[in-house]
Design a protein that fits this description.
alpha+beta, Arc Repressor Mutant, subunit A, 2 domains, single chain, Alpha-Beta Plaits
Length: 190
């Protein structure tokens, strides 16, 4: 039995969900970001308890197929950005289609309908949040960050960063306290 869980964005999220599954005595085959494969079918009362426990720690058990598809797309992009290994010639449409096994236009249209932001904008916002993280930790140069996130130049990254945040990367770095958002709170109102 497959379950889809919203707001799983990191390895700690996976561990938290695994803990809840064990507490509820639900045996699983695998737990991935946004997805759980149970060994057996769960009873309705088990799913209700699981739903409540997940919600108590900030997750949401999804039952709408459209929401599941969009959450899968979000998780896919978050994982990609977190890896920080995006090629300069990266094609978002090909990547999404290949990994979700749906036409990009279908996913993109549905994403925009449900999230009020395009898939491309969401991807850019995720990259900007990663840039903020790396700037705060001060372990990489702007050139290295640009390369890791697939920007064609530092100038392009800087322009996009300023357009979204209102600050240049260097101004952000000098004044970063409290300006980062959690990954699951990134939306069109940034």
């Amino acid at each position: 039995m497959e379950l889809y869980i919203k707001n799983m964005v990191c390895p700690r999220c996976k561990m938290a969900v695994e803990t809840i599954l064990k507490e509820e005595d639900l045996q699983y085959i695998k737990v991935e970001l946004g997805e759980v494969l149970l060994k057996n079918e769960a009873a309705g009362w088990q799913l209700e308890r699981l739903k409540n426990k997940l919600e108590a720690v900030g997750f949401e058990l999804l039952d709408d197929h459209r929401k599941m598809l969009i959450d899968k797309a979000k998780t896919l992009l978050i994982e990609l950005v977190q890896l920080g290994d995006i090629d300069e010639h990266f094609a978002l449409s090909a990547y999404v289609s290949k990994n979700i096994h749906k036409e990009y236009s279908t996913v993109s249209k549905l994403f925009t309908q449900l999230e009020s932001i395009t898939l491309e904008q969401y991807f850019i916002l995720q990259k900007v949040e990663k840039v903020k993280e790396w700037l705060v930790y001060d372990e990489l140069s702007l050139s290295e960050i640009s390369y890791k996130l697939g920007y064609s130049s530092v100038g392009y990254l800087s322009n996009q960063f300023k357009r979204i945040t209102g600050l240049t990367p260097s101004a952000f770095k000098a004044n970063h306290k409290g300006l980062r958002k959690t990954l699951d709170s990134v939306n069109a109102n940034n």
